[in-house]
Design brief:
Shape: globular
Order of helices and strands: HHHHEEEHHEHHEHEEHHHEHHH
Low-confidence stretches: none
Mean pLDDT: 90
Strand content: 15-25%
Distance between the termini: 54 Å
Radius of gyration: 21 Å
Oligomer: single chain
Structural class: alpha/beta
Length: 324
């Protein structure tokens, strides 16, 4: 059964009408093709109007859409010959982060992606995309291995945040993320990170120290989730919508602040409406970005990566000082 967000309902109602008319049109002696074409044009116009004027909270809802493509969907669609690698060699395997090696258009690549899970049992297995310390250690192990053999790394970010449970904290959650932040600046091979849904806090950043950080058009990337922000500021997670609007979540603001490098477009109405087309859009960008980064020397690559994160927010700080 299709899941429909409130702001998507007008589109789905028209699409249901079109399906009914198409069934009727298939019967002998009936020709209502012009009516169908008129409705299809109306749907296209409505999609542009609705999805071109989303509020930050509506964008949050869209980034969490139950049918939105996940890491595993992109792996299956974009890459060839994927071989998953398990375990952090210290404690256990964390299914919330999928790691392995594959081919992208003939190029060997390493993949680390956060997976939320689709059905109930899978969501529980993946811990709803909230990684534990062993997940970040596994990701770093794969990245170091890729670095040894000069294999480009691709990471997919889709998480509300790292898991805050007692066990995760006892096993060094904060330290594991901090280690990844430090070590990824020294990985001697190109790294590309793509925010495909939610990019929440350090849980996202733990695999997103990259040469190119990209966001899909209807994704979010934030220091904190709207619910957590609302809980801190107003002691009420139900005020998440107000928090989302205040945080100005979305790729446009992140691009303006140089938190990301570019935005990957999505099919009209979002990636969940055409998963194959969304995957193809991501694939073409990844192929292009890898080719560009491979032209850089290792020293230049590491220098640019470090400077990129040092420059984040500098322009904003200077502007604020000038206005004070």
């Amino acid at each position: 059964m299709d899941y429909t967000l409130d702001f998507e309902k007008p589109v789905h109602e028209l699409e249901n009408q079109i399906r009914d008319l198409q069934e009727a049109n298939a019967k002998p002696g009936i020709d209502i093709s012009k009516e169908i074409e008129a409705l299809e044009a109306k749907v296209d116009k409505l999609i542009k109007e609705i999805y071109g004027n989303l509020s930050p909270w509506e964008r949050v809802q869209l980034s969490r859409h139950p049918q939105r493509p996940h890491t595993i969907d992109y792996i299956e669609t974009i890459f060839d010959d994927f071989h998953e690698v398990h375990g952090d060699r210290k404690f256990s395997d964390d299914p919330a982060i999928i790691c392995g090696f594959a081919h992208l258009d003939g190029q060997k690549v390493a993949i680390c992606g956060i997976e939320k899970g689709r059905k109930t049992q899978d969501k529980i297995k993946r811990n709803f995309g909230m990684a534990r310390p062993e997940g970040y250690r596994k990701a770093l192990r794969i990245m170091k291995l890729a670095s040894q053999f000069n294999i480009p790394i691709i990471t997919f970010v889709d998480t509300p945040g790292a898991y805050p449970g007692i066990g995760a904290e006892e096993r060094g959650q904060a330290q594991a993320i901090a280690d990844n932040l430090e070590e990824m600046f020294g990985i001697k091979t190109p790294i590309i990170s793509v925010v495909i849904g939610e990019g929440g806090s350090g849980g996202a950043l733990g695999i997103a120290i990259a040469d190119r950080v990209l966001m899909m058009k209807y994704s979010i990337y934030s220091v904190i989730s709207p619910e957590s922000c609302a809980s801190i500021l107003w002691s009420d997670p139900k005020m998440a919508e107000k928090a989302a609007n205040s945080l100005q979540l979305g790729p446009e603001k992140a691009l303006e602040l140089k938190v990301i490098d570019d935005v990957i477009n999505e099919p009209a109405g979002g990636a969940h409406r055409d998963k194959d087309e969304a995957a193809n859009m991501v694939k073409q960008v990844l192929i292009s970005e890898i080719k560009k980064l491979q032209k850089e020397s290792v020293d230049k690559l590491l220098e640019n990566r470090l400077q990129k994160f040092r420059d984040m927010g500098n322009q904003t700080i200077l502007e604020d000082k000038g206005n004070s």
